[in-house]
Every structure is written in C-alpha cells, then in structure tokens.
Design brief:
three-stranded antiparallel beta sheet, 3 strands
Length: 124
Amino acid sequence: MVESEDNPQKDADAAPQEVPQAASGPQAPQQPPQIEVDDSQAECCYANFCRVTGTPEELIIDFGLNPNPFGVPSEPIRVTQRIICNLYTAKRMLHVLELTVQRHEAAFGALETDVQRRAATRRA
C-alpha cells in the first residue's frame, strides 16, 4: 500500500478495493508467462564431444570437436564451449532434454548411441 507523504494514514484508512470475482464455470488453464529471449549475440558451434564434471554446487559441461570420433583420439580434444550452471538448472535441463529426445524418437525411431551397432544396422 502506498502512503502519501502529507498524510500517512490517508491511504491506510481508505476502504479496500473490491477484487473482481472469477466467472462461474470452468476456468481456462493459465498460460505460462512468455519469456523474451534475445539470441542476436549467441555464438553457435558444433560439438561431437561432451565432458561433464562438477562441484557440489555446480555442473560443468565442456563441448568440443573430436576429429576422430571412432576410437581413441590421437591428439587432445580442444574444448571450445563451457557451460557452468547450478544443479537446479541442470535438473531442469535434463528434464527438457529427455522430453525432446522422447519426442524425436516417437517421430523418427530410436536413437542408437553405440556407434558400432549403429554402423552394423546401416550395413544390413
């Protein structure tokens, strides 16, 4: 409540305003607030390597490009991007990634993460 400088009790003594009552009947589901995102300064990169480490408070995700994705790389993989977030954000990210992969697999089929098995099915 805002009080005027010349009379602090003026607004406190005023009658409370009526709160509009919701219409009877089924209520429409509330839409989540729309968050505006400005990605005009975002830098994009491709990664086929990911390393996850962390601390008790944070998750550290490193991304890079492995020039030899089959077998052990002969040179160090250069990390080009690093994301550090708290574990609450990491858990939300995990959830949205799971949903996204589930939707993709429902539309296009299972994603085989074992490269050898994936290559064997392509030959067959």
